[in-house]
Amino acid sequence: MKVIVVLLFLVGNAITTHAYKCIETERQALLTFKQGLVDYQNRLSSWTSSNKNCCTWSEIRCHDLTNHIIMLDLRPNFTYYDAGMRWGPIYGEITLSLVQLQYLEYLDLSYNGFTKIPNFIDSFTNLEYLNFSGNPLIGNIPSQLGNITKLCILDVSDTMAMSSLISNSFKWVSHLSNLTIFKMSSTNFTKAIDWFHSFKTAPSLLSLHLSNCEFPKLDYDSYFSHTNSSINSITNLDVSRSIFGSTTVSHLLNLSNNLVDLSLYSNNFNVEVTPSNSIIPHYSFQNLKSLRRCNLSLIDCNNNSLEILNLPHNNLIGPLPRDFARILNLRELDVSSNKFNGTLQESMGTLSSLELLDISWNSFSGVVSQSHLEKLSKLEYLDLSSNSLTIKLPNTWVPPFHQLQHINLRSCMIGPHFPSWLQTQSNISYIDLSYSGISDTIPLWSFNTTSNLRYLNISFNQIHSSLPNIPLESNHFPIVDLSSNRFHGNIPLNSLFNATMLNLSNNILTGFDLLFCNSVLNGNVEVLDLSNNQLFGNLPNCWFRLQNLKFLNLRDNRLFEVIPSSIASLY
């Protein structure tokens, strides 16, 4: 029994001793590397000549058996945030000494201050993961990357747009047979005419991100006609915020038949859509049977599986394609901030799965009737604002949806009557009916059907009535704008004063309610604008009830020049 115990002790001691070994040449390589770095936050404090075991240093991991360094991770700790140093990036040069790390499999230098990818990068022949993202990289992307044949993930993207990379060819990408994810941004590859063919021939590529890049200016119709345009492996494609001609787009959509996530967001295409000549031919989408998320800058989808289609902030011109009505599973449609024009097809009302519809900030015109909303039973978000639309809905109309949370009809012609159908919506939190031609009185129900209001704007109408007692919950920090109407009478201290911001300017209010100071309510208003009314006489002397008030505008009224003493309680 004693022999067994001794053997176990010796084995355990051997394992323990083995775990604390460090390859000396690799330790020296790291010390030399550190000498050329600026480490303001002292993140590499454990890297010292006195500490002989580099396998215990921070940011390092060694192989359990060979003790060779297999991971170097200098990505900052984002949970530790310093306003002066941001997250403590490391600056300096990637020195040649690092080539001693021949067994490195994982190298993460992201979100630091490195400015160049070294040409000797292919010395790390065992690398499977390489991340330079978030660095202010400049210069050429070295073609030597193509020699790292085990590479699976390569990220040279820059979400903060500090880098400025150049690539004249992507032939090296086609050599990376194991590459599954490639992310690159802020790169000019206008001379890389082989980009499409190179990515096409990377057989394992699943995710391709080329955001904020500048593509070559080619005759793509001629170029793609001689190129097999199918990359069957790619499921994620992002070319958002990039610069290329509109003729490129339909070919980009044919990069793969297996696309699940597609983003061409904010590309600022200057293209025109006509009913007879759509900017995306039908063949562009007909094979994308797996697509589930589509954040596009283009249109014309003939794909029943598509659920999310976002096209905001581009320069798209023309009517909406009729094919939208065929996307029966569409849950979100956002074409806001473009230059679309024409009328809305009534067939939009057949999209029974639609939860979000945003066509704001375009040039749509014509009438929106109940046919446009006929089957939208799941609608929660509706924004038709900043167009030239006329809303014609009968006073007796009952909408098919009952869970609306956000409605913005700013600049739509709704009047003269107040839209009575709003009283059917019990969950509504955002209402904007400004500039909508309403010349009615505030109805008796006056938003009493909802207690979730966070934003209400009915300004710049001709609404004539006394101020309504709209139920507002102070814990929602609501914003209320009733300005530029014809509200008259006295100002009561009611639940309106639970608004964080309350704008009653440019009305014909004449004074404060006699019971203003006797109200049991202590308002939570922080910004109160009563300017350009007809307030006359003395201000009430109970401003201590509005302890949160920070801004009070009383200009252009007829008040006496006596400041009540309670105003001092607000300082």
UniProtKB/TrEMBL annotation:
Residues 24-62 form the Leucine-rich repeat-containing N-terminal plant-type domain. Its main location: membrane. GO terms for cellular component: plasma membrane. SUPFAM superfamilies: L domain-like, RNI-like. Keywords: Cell membrane, Glycoprotein, Leucine-rich repeat, Membrane, Receptor, Repeat, Signal, Transmembrane, Transmembrane helix. Belongs to the RLP family. This is Leucine-rich repeat-containing N-terminal plant-type domain-containing protein. It comes from Cannabis sativa.
